[in-house]
Amino acid sequence: MSELLKKIQQVLQVISQKTTKKYEIGIILGTGLGGLVKDIEVEFTFDYSELPHFPLSTVESHVGKMILGSIAGKNVVVLQGRFHYYEGYTMQQITFPVRVMKFLGVKYLLVSNACGGMNPIYKRGDLMIINDHINLLGDNPLIGKNEDELGPRFPDMSEPYSEELIQIAEKVALENKLKVQKGVYVAVPGPNLETKAEYRFLRTIGADVVGMSTVPENIVANHMGIKVLGISIVTDECFPDLLKPVSVEEVIEAANLAEPKMTKIFHEVIKEL
Ligand code: HPA
């Protein structure tokens, strides 16, 4: 057995002491989705420190938890605390929890994030359903020997975000009178925000928003045949000719304002699955 499969088995051994149920829906609580925690009927919670090979946050205040339970009667496995490439983790570390999710039964992966809006019709606080992405991280979680048991060497990426899930998300947004944009997310390593020239470049190559997460998890999910839904919160407007300095406080404020809308859409999507 390969090293990666052995590591996955070691985590499953810990989890199987508590539950052997299947969990079809995986959720990564990125920015703007913290409120969804309140909707979970919790069965078991694991600190990442209890799960072998899970990345550990160096920031003490940072939550790292796997929650197993249900939302709207559907079994869910929820990751509270995500890891970014700019923190110094490898792509394999960032995506290891998604590998484990597959073995817990996950068929649908729902993720959220914060981003800068470059499409001029987008406004701070808007939600955007991701319908495609561009990987400018300069790295890829699939580099190295392929695990044929997990997925193909050259995974197809013609539909990285599931059309089926996008349609459900658009339907529930409309039913709940919530405005959503739909567009392309470009992932950059960060951690600095972009220069005016970089925003101009990123817009020119076809991106609507820019952020520093989600793409590694998406690639690994696609490798294993998991369908992905991603929704971004536009936390700052990145129009190169009007660019103003952005503070972290403003980013967090915009994310908090959009959070109820995001949580509502995810809750309703889960009901429909
Ligand atoms: N750039 C990159 N990532 C971001 C931004 C941005 O402007 N805003 C929020 N996340």
Structure description:
By secondary structure, this protein is α/β, with parallel strands linked by helices. The chain has one domain (about 5-270): Nucleoside phosphorylase domain (Rossmann fold), CATH 3.40.50.1580. Helix content is about 30%, strand content about 25%. Strands 5-8-7-6-9 form a five-stranded mixed β-barrel, surrounded by four helices. Helix 2 (about 90-105) crosses helix 5 and helix 3 (about 165-175) packs across helix 6 (about 250-270). It is globular, with a radius of gyration of 18 Å. Hypoxanthine binds near residues 116, 212, 235, 236 and 238.
Estimated helix fraction = 25-40%
Question: Major beta sheet, specifics?
Answer: 5 strands, mixed, barrel
Bound molecules: hypoxanthine
**Backbone CA Rg:** 18 Å
Class inferred from helices and paired strands: alpha/beta
Proportion of residues in β-strands: 15-25%
Question: For this structure, what is the CATH class?
Answer: Alpha Beta
User: How many discrete domains?
Assistant: 1
CATH superfamily placement: Nucleoside phosphorylase domain
